[in-house]
Every structure is written in C-alpha cells, then in structure tokens.
Design a protein that fits this description.
heterodimer; A: alpha/beta; D-Maltodextrin-Binding Protein, domain 2; 2 domains; 18 helices; B: MetI-like fold; two-stranded antiparallel sheet; 2 strands; globular
Chain lengths: 442, 280
C-alpha cells in the first residue's frame, strides 16, 4: 500500500513539474520593458541565417520590448510549413514568398506595403513585388551565384581565371583537370548532390540559365509555354558537372549539398556551383582563395555574362494579423534595414552580430546597405563594375514545386545513364511539364 | 455498482468522446467539406463542387500510386504474415533464449519510420554503390527496398500477436491429434491454423491497412523517386497538396478517395477472415 502511494505521489510530482516547465518556457520571455503593443512572428526561409535572425529578434526585444518570434522552416520545407502555420490562429505576421509564382498563392494574405516606411527605404522598385499600385512583397536580400572556385587549386592545375572566358574554355580546363586528377589530387567539380534536400542547385539555379536566355531571346519575362530553346546548352553544362566530379554520376542521388561543401572546403575539388550565401560554410578555404565564375553554358555573347544576381526572398506582411501586430511587424522590418544593429547584422560578415557571431552577409536593396565584407559579394560587384551583364533570377517564374521536383528527378536519371532517351525525359519534364503545371495552376 | 455507473457514465465517457470529436470527427467532416473547395489555408475555402475529384481521378500519378500501393500491400501481406507466423512457431518451441529472440525481433518496431527509412537508405545505397547503382534510380530497387524495410519493421509485431494466439491453443487438442496419428503437417493445417484464425484476422487487417497508409518510410527511403514510380498513395496526396499552387483541394479530394478505398478493403478483408474463425 505504501509503495503504491509513493508511486502515485511520484507521478503527481512529475506531472506538475512538466506543467510548470511548460508554462515557464513561455512566460520567461514576457518581461517587457515598455507596454509594447503587438508582437512579431517571422517565418524565416533561410536556414543558414537562422542563428542571426534569432539573435536579432532578441536584440530588438531588449531594445523596444516588442516580442519577436522567429521560426525557421527546414530546407525545402518552407511552403509546407507556411501553409500549416497560416492556418493557425497565431499565424506568422511576417512571411516570405519566392516571387510572382509564390505570390499567386499567397496574395490574399498580403498586406499592401506601399505606404510603409520600409518600402520607402527601398532603392529601386525592381526589388518590390508590385501589382498595379499595390506592393505585396519587398525583396530584402540580393544574392548572386555562379561557379565558386578555389584559386589556389586552379593555379596548381596551371590555370587562372583569365583562361576561362566562355563555355569552351571552361570545358577545356575542366577536362584537363579530370585527365590529371590522380596526379593533382583533386577533381574539377564537387559532387552535384541530387538528394531531395539539395537538388535545388541544379533543378532551380542551373535551370535558370536556359530559361534566362530563352526569355532574353523572346523578349519576355514570364511564359505559360517554355520552348526549351537552350536545353542543349543545359545538357552540356550538366554533362560537364557530373562527368568531372568527385563521384560517379550514378551516385548523385545519394549525395547532398553538404557533401559538396565539405569536398570544396577540404580541397578535393576546384569548382563548386553555389552563391554568396554559402560564404559562411566555405570561409575556411580562405578569402584570398575564393573566386567566382559566371556559369557559362555556351551561348553566343556570353563573354559579357556576369553572375546570376537577384532575389527570391520577398518579405510579405500578413493582412489578417491584428492591427497592432501589423504595425509591430512593419516597425521591426524598418528597424532591421535602418538601425545600426540591424543593417550590420544583415550586411556584415565576420563578427557583425552583437554577440560577435558572423552576420548574414547579404546585400540589401535598401538605403542603409553597408559595404559587404563577404568576398563573394565583392566578386559579384566587380563583375558589374567591369560592365558584365548580371543574369536575372527567372526561376521565380517556374510554374510549381512539382515542376522542379520532376526536373530534378529526370536529371538524376539522366546522370546515371547519359543517353538521348534519358535526356528526352529531361526535356519533357522541362517543356511539357512547364505547360502542364502552368495550366494546372491557373 | 450498476447504479453508480448509470449515474456517473458521463465522467467516464465524455472526456474520451470529446477527444474523439475534436481529434477525429470534426477534422474528418471538415476534410470532406474541404475536398469540394478551393483553398490555401482551411480558413479561406470557397466551394467549387466536384472539380477537385475530376482532377484527382484524371491524375496519372495517382492511379499509378494506387496500383503500386496495391501490389505492395499484397506482397507485404503475404511475406509479413508467413514469416511472422513461422518465427512465432519457432519461438514457441522449447528452445533456449526464446525471450531474447522475441525481444530482438520486436525491437525494430520501436524505431520511428522516418529514421528507419534513412538508415535503410544508407544500408541499401552502401551496398548498391559497390555496383555503381543507387536506390533512387530504379523503381524495382525502390519497391523491394520498401518491402524489406516494412518486413523488417513489422514481422516482430505480428510475431507477438501470433505467439499470443499460439499459446492460447489448449495443448490437449494437439495431444489428442497425435494419439490419433496425425503428423506435424496435418496438425499445423488442421488444428493450429484454424485455431489461430482470430490472430490471423487481426494481423492481416493490420498489415493491409499499414501498407496502404504507409507514408514515413516511403518519404524517407525513396521519396517517390524515380519520377513518382515508387510513390505510394499517402505520399502522392502529400505531394499534391504541397507541390502545386492551388492544388490543396485536389489533395484533399484524393485523401477522401483514399479513405474510402482503405475502409472498403479493410471491411472486405475482415468479413473474409471472420468467416473462417472457429469456436473452441
């Protein structure tokens, strides 16, 4: 009998303890200094900037007393997370869309930002998602991607950036490195990981190039029916990536972007397709060793091609949030892009955060933009200074997630067996899939 | 006693009923309603009629997912039950260490599906990599990979159910049969299996519905690669819901169709095996 009682008492204690801790965790943050109205709930898209946003949110709360909660969706899970979060009674007040296609599904939720302070900070209307006079989204980070390379290794192989002025040069250098792979001790490309969490580098970013050139040629900026005019170029560059990499093209489905990053950092490969956001991960290579090449695909006139520069990160404010919350959110956004702490955290690289951690390293399209310490960003700026034309980000016009997934899966299949029949599958996913998905989304 | 139950029944029934209503009945009805709607989140639904169902049925990946799932369910139904039954028979003989074996066989069931999927993906790709092959490139590998994974996970659980059934058969029946001169084979098919029908009903029901509802393992092991060929119904619904702009309603319609199919198959199967159950 005694034992039973003891057990019951023990269980009761455990139960109350868990209740207390449950409450405690939510209460502890509430120590507001002023009687601030409203709160901010930011659903962040960028996992690589999660730590920084968390810190910035805390900083803002300490400064103003307004509660800011930042939740970051897992890589490739943003839409899923957003959909379920938006259905809740405590929905995000600040969320992101990736461009016109993303906006199409969330427009009903977007607050018109045209009268907001943060919109007035924007340096160019190119970075706003506008429809008529309403501003639904504001781009907050401009990024560039291309082929990042290791200067030291390239030199060791006997080349420099001056040797690479177009696709043919790139191909020659890459294939030469591959032929001397064993002697040099490194490969040309890092593994093009096609695991579902990582294939965005190719199904989205690399696919931007054939789309960009087609749009250029046809003088359009969106379409329901892509023709795939430059798909052969896409095939050439993809062949180059997969056949000169650290791993067999048949093993791509098992590799992730993290694998590629570590291969690049440990100097197993010279070239690595990624963007300015990857700087924090590859900084160990040393700033002096980092360079970036445009992704040449062999289109005429590509000597003047720069890096791919644009944004797929647009801030949107939830229209259905309470008035106080909307105001708090607008204030927070404005603070991020105007205050010293905010701009430093967003633009700075090493030690830019108040705690001494690395900053986000963005270029922000606002008046408060600071000169970047991210060497990759500076490379991108140098290209613009040299008069090279940046390639715009057209992948925000891709009709759906499904289109990207199907393309990715076709690319993986093709990589494992590089036949024309398998390339036809890529083509069909690209062209027919586009028409189908664009129609379905209507 | 009876009087107090009569008086206090709400205390016993109501909490569970409330939980059941909130956690199942209400979302279920709302889900059916939403399958006739166009919506982004559940709060902004607008009625569109049968359009979603038309789109769902005309989707080829959905019909493929259905046939893939059906084949998968049949294969795993046979494999899991035969193997689990065999293991159960072996572990009710008087061998040393049966308890350890039972524990070991049961253990995979304690691991979550997502983790299992990733672990097995590493194992399969590790082996296939030696031959320059990969799991996600070949639908056949994906299919058998899933079968192996599910067998590994569920045989232990079904084994426990079968062991309980075997132990409930009175020893006198087998003894009597032995005296009458029945051999081991006859005893298995004429006595043990008929006596085991209640366990078999439960196990077949569980394996069929589990196979149809399979999601986690499918997502983490193959995620439908290559090109939706190893995509099962639950994963197809998930992809529809999240993969396209404006396809939430279609995903919901697929989910309702999916529900009807699973219920129908479950009921047919229950009736079929129930008929064979015998009274002791």
């Amino acid at each position: 009998m005694n034992k039973k009682r003891l057990m019951a008492a023990g269980l009761a204690v455990i139960m109350t303890a868990s209740m207390v801790t449950g409450c405690g965790s939510s209460d502890s943050k509430k120590e507001s200094k002023t009687d601030a109205k409203g709160s901010v709930y930011y659903l962040n898209f960028k996992p690589e900037a999660d730590d920084q946003w968390q810190e910035l949110a805390k900083e803002y709360t300490d400064e103003t007393g307004v509660k800011v909660e930042v939740v970051t969706a897992a890589s490739n899970q943003y839409e899923t997370t957003l959909k379920s979060e938006m259905g809740k009674s405590k929905a995000p007040t600040l969320f992101q869309v990736n461009g016109p296609v993303g906006l199409a599904s969330w427009k009903k939720y977007c607050y018109d930002l045209s009268g907001s302070d943060v919109y007035k900070q924007l340096t160019s209307d190119d970075f706003a998602l506008k429809e008529n006079d309403a501003v639904y989204g504001i781009g907050y980070a401009i990024e560039s991607y291309g082929i990042i390379y290791n200067k030291k290794l390239l030199k060791k192989a006997g080349y420099s950036q001056d040797d690479i002025k177009g696709f043919d040069d790139l191909k020659k250098v890459v294939e030469d490195i591959t032929s001397r792979k064993d002697k040099l001790g490194f490969s040309a490309f890092t593994s093009a990981g096609m695991d579902g969490s990582s294939d965005w580098r190719f199904k989205t970013h690399l696919a931007n190039l054939p789309i960009y050139y087609e749009y250029q040629k046809d003088k359009i900026d969106n379409t329901d029916k892509i023709k795939g005019t430059y798909l052969d170029n896409y095939r050439n560059i993809w062949n180059l990536y997969i056949n000169n990499a650290t791993c067999s093209p048949k093993q791509l489905s098992t590799k992730t972007a993290d694998d590629a990053t570590s291969e690049f950092v440990t100097e197993q490969a010279v070239f690595y397709q990624n963007g300015t956001w990857a700087y924090a991960d590859i900084a160990d290579v040393g700033d002096e060793n980092l360079g970036m090449l445009p992704i040449y695909v062999g289109v005429k006139g590509e000597e003047n091609q720069g890096l791919c520069t644009g944004t797929e990160n647009y801030w949107c404010v939830n229209k259905n949030a309470s008035k106080d919350d909307i105001q708090a959110t607008l204030d927070f956004m404005n603070w991020c892009v105007t205050s010293k702490t905010g701009t430093k955290a967003m633009c700075g690289a090493a030690n830019a955060m108040p705690s001494g951690a690395d900053g986000m390293g963005f270029v922000i399209p606002f008046k408060g933009n600071l000169k970047s310490e991210n060497p990759l960003v500076n490379v991108a700026n140098d290209y613009v200074k040299e008069g090279k034309t940046p390639v715009s980000w057209n992948f925000s016009t891709m009709p759906s997630e499904q289109w990207k997934n199907d393309l990715g899966s076709a690319l993986t299949t093709y990589a494992s067996k590089q036949t024309d029949a398998n390339w036809a599958k890529v083509k069909s996913a690209f062209v027919d899939g586009w028409a189908k998905e664009a129609k379905a989304s209507k | 006693m009876e009087k107090s139950i009569k008086r206090y029944w709400p205390v016993f029934i109501l909490p569970t009923m409330a939980a059941f209503m909130i956690g199942f009945v209400v979302p279920f009805l709302e889900g059916i309603y939403l399958s006739f709607c166009d919506f982004t989140t559940i709060k902004d639904a607008s009625f569109v009629g049968l359009e979603n169902y038309a789109k769902a049925i005309s989707d080829k990946t959905f019909t493929h997912a259905f046939s893939f799932t059906t084949v998968f369910a049949i294969v795993t139904l046979v494999l899991i039950n035969v193997l689990a039954f065999a293991v159960a028979l072996a572990l009710t003989q008087k061998i040393k260490g049966t308890n350890i074996f039972r524990t070991v066989f049961f253990m995979p069931n304690l691991i979550g599906g997502i983790v299992l999927g990733y672990v097995w993906q590493l194992i399969f790709d590790g082996i296939l990599g030696k031959f320059d092959l990969a799991l996600k490139l070949n639908a056949k590998f994906g299919f058998w990979g899933l079968v192996i994974l599910i067998c590994w996970q569920q045989i232990g659980y079904m084994m426990i159910v079968y062991i309980a059934g075997l132990q409930a058969i009175p020893g006198s029946l087998n003894e009597a049969a032995m005296i009458d001169g029945a051999n081991a084979r006859q005893r298995l098919f004429k006595i043990t299996i008929p006596m085991m029908m209640p366990s078999i009903t439960i196990c077949t029901f569980l394996t069929i519905t589990n196979s149809f509802k399979l999601f986690d393992q499918n997502l983490s092991l193959t995620s439908g690669e290559p090109m939706h060929q190893t995509e099962m119904m639950a994963l197809n619904i998930y992809d529809t819901f999240y993969g396209h702009v404006g396809f939430e309603g279609v995903g919901q319609a697929k989910a309702v169709i999916f529900f009807i199919i699973v219920v129908a198959i479950g009921l047919i199967q229950l009736r079929a095996t129930r008929d064979k159950e015998v009274q002791q």
